[in-house]
Design goal:
11 strands, alpha/beta, single chain, Glutaredoxin, 19% strand
Length: 242
């Protein structure tokens, strides 16, 4: 009897914990749900990235409220109704999560985040609005140009998908620069700005940054999402150059 009582209490606690977890996570929604919800006329869609990022590509009907400019962001959200359904996003989810939390603390009751950001949106092949001006951006790389570089190089090609605002990307930047200099006879470094090349990222399946890929004769021989030490990276390049 005591054992049955324990089981009942355990089950009740487990169910309660799951309910609490579901409530906690309910403000973060996946790309498909985000797409369906933002299709509603009353939905307010906020892109919290910088203006240059927004100009390159964004969701249809999105407002651009730059989270990095806190004073302006505060003024902009104060013009919104506190009980409105508000949907926020950035490239990978970090900034939108911070912005959404700030809004909730300031009285907004229905704020939802795009889990995984624009990269996860693109993973689902959902539509974005792209500026034609982006193609004249010196950081824009067409798929044809990308393929030409990785296929025609006589060296290994190390591709770094990054963004200026990405913390781990900033950690990798000096490491990659040093490696490409010290092993310049073995490897060519190609840096791809994920914000300026959302379609390229979608085509190549880049859904998190930093994303690094090592090509040999046009084929990927190694890749990783995240950071890696200079020592390990140099060993990998030496190994695959043989």
């Amino acid at each position: 009897m005591l054992f049955k009582h324990f089981i009942i209490i355990f089950a009740f606690n487990l169910i309660g914990s799951n309910v609490l977890l579901a409530n906690t996570d309910s403000t973060k929604i996946n790309a498909i749900t985000f797409h369906d919800k933002t299709a509603q006329k009353e939905a307010v869609i906020i892109d919290v990235r910088t203006a240059p990022e927004f100009e390159k590509s964004h969701l249809a009907n999105a407002l651009n409220y730059n989270w990095n400019n806190k004073e302006t962001f505060k003024e902009q959200i104060n013009a919104l109704k506190k009980d409105a359904d508000i949907y926020v996003y950035c490239l990978s989810g970090g900034r939108s999560s911070a912005a959404a939390e700030y809004m909730r603390k300031n009285g907004f009751t229905n704020v939802y985040e795009l889990e995984g950001g624009l990269l996860k949106w693109l993973e689902q092949k959902l539509p974005v609005t792209e500026s034609e001006n982006n193609k004249s951006n010196n950081r824009y790389i067409s798929i044809a140009a990308y393929n030409n570089i990785v296929n025609s190089s006589s060296k290994l090609v190390l591709v770094d998908f990054y963004a200026d605002w990405c913390g781990p990307c900033k950690v990798m930047a000096p490491i990659l620069a040093s490696v490409s200099q010290k092993q310049s006879d073995l490897v060519q470094l190609l840096k791809v700005d994920a914000d300026a090349n959302t379609r390229l990222c979608e085509t190549l399946g880049v859904y998190a940054i930093p994303d690094m890929r090592l090509y040999k004769n046009g084929k990927i021989v190694w890749q990783t999402a995240g950071t890696i030490s200079q020592k390990k990276l140099q060993k990998l390049i030496k190994k695959h150059s043989k």
